[in-house]
Amino acid sequence: MTYKMPDEALTPEAFMERAATSLPAHLGIRLTKTTREMFVGEFDVKPFHMAPNGFLHAGSVVTLADSMCGLACAANLPDTSSGFTTIELKTNFFGTALEGTVTATAVPVHLGRTTHVWDCEVTHRDTGKRMALFRCTQMVLFPKS
């Protein structure tokens, strides 16, 4: 398959540069691995990641996981596509973090012509404990003829 994004553009630095002013950058998300088969990213828990109850905000975890899956989807788009959009996402939470580093690893479940499905496991890097499982479905968009 010919991809919209060439192999040489699949570096953490290239993705971070493109996302420099977006929500993931504002939350301090860093990419550590970017391949067509896996995207890994993380953030260090800071006060702005927390909910008013003192625990890690669910939105911080979902943003990390959704960012890994969305960037991975972008890396796997066919060259004839015009982009993608999320059509569904779901998260199950198992734990939280009050400090340390939260890591998310996204892998493809289905890479079809019109839909992609991605799973992402969110863990606490320091303890290895699973914090959440995330799944999203992306619709691949094509130009209208």
The main sheet orders its strands as 1-2-4-5-6-3
Under the CATH scheme, which architecture would be assigned?
Roll
Mean pLDDT: 96
CATH structural fold name = Thiol Ester Dehydrase, Chain A
Quick one: CATH superfamily?
A: Hotdog Thioesterase
Instruction: Work out the number of β strands.
Output: 6
Helix content: 10-25%
Taking all Cα atoms into account, the compactness measure Rg is: 15 Å
Keywords:
145 residues, alpha+beta, Thiol Ester Dehydrase, Chain A, 6-stranded antiparallel beta sheet, 3 helices, 6 strands
Explain the overall architecture.
A hairpin with a 2-residue loop joins strand 1 (30-35) and strand 2 (38-44). A six-stranded antiparallel β-sheet has the order 1-2-4-5-6-3. It has helices spanning 12-18, 23-26, 58-75; strands at 30-35, 38-44, 83-93, 101-111, 115-124, 130-141. It is α+β, with helices and mostly antiparallel strands. The protein has one domain: Thiol Ester Dehydrase, Chain A (Roll), CATH 3.10.129.10. The radius of gyration is 15 Å and the shape is globular. The chain starts with 11 loop residues before the first helix and ends with a strand. It is 20% helix and 39% strand.
Helix and strand topology:
Blueprint: H1 12-18, H2 23-26, E1 30-35, E2 38-44, H3 58-75, E3 83-93, E4 101-111, E5 115-124, E6 130-141
Antiparallel strand pairs: 1-2, 2-4, 3-6, 4-5, 5-6
Give a short summary of the structure.
This protein has 145 residues and is an alpha+beta fold. The protein has a single domain (7-141), classed as Hotdog Thioesterase (Thiol Ester Dehydrase, Chain A). It contains 3 helices and 6 strands, in the order ααββαββββ.
